[in-house]
Write a structure and sequence with these properties.
By secondary structure, this protein is mainly alpha-helical. 16% of the residues lie in helices and 5% in strands. It has a two-stranded parallel ribbon.
């Protein structure tokens, strides 16, 4: 039930998501396998979230915070990740093809097996392969 509530809140946008998080401070965000493609979630805080196999294709995730999040096998194809934070995030096997990663902070992120073909970037932090 909680997972469904989370998906509904995030689909309503960043303000609704932050409201849901404030009402549920002890719940770790769980959006595993959620289809969130095409959403505009600029500035969203998904710090520590479970996003394994989530579909975030073609989202606006500028300045989003994914620090410590698990994005194993997530689809981030064609997504705008400008100034997003992925410090210590797990992106093992994630699909990042054609993503825009300008000034994206990838310190400590694990991109083992990630598809980073055609990533557009400028001053991306150090990547770990």
């Amino acid at each position: 039930m909680v997972k469904i509530e989370q998906e509904e809140a995030i689909r309503k946008g960043v303000a609704a998501w932050e409201e849901w998080k404030a009402a549920n401070p002890k719940v770790r965000p769980d959006l595993r396998r959620a289809n969130l493609s095409g959403l505009s979630l600029e500035g969203i805080n998904l710090n520590g979230a479970r996003l394994q196999e989530a579909d975030l294709e073609y989202c606006n995730l500028k300045r989003a915070n994914f620090a410590g999040a698990d994005l194993t096998r997530a689809n981030l194809q064609g997504t705008d990740l400008t100034e997003a934070i992925f410090i210590n995030a797990n992106l093992t096997g994630a699909r990042l093809t054609n993503a825009l990663m300008t000034r994206t902070d990838m310190r400590g992120a694990d991109l083992t097996g990630a598809d980073v073909r055609n990533v557009r970037r400028d001053r991306v932090g150090k990547l770990k392969y």
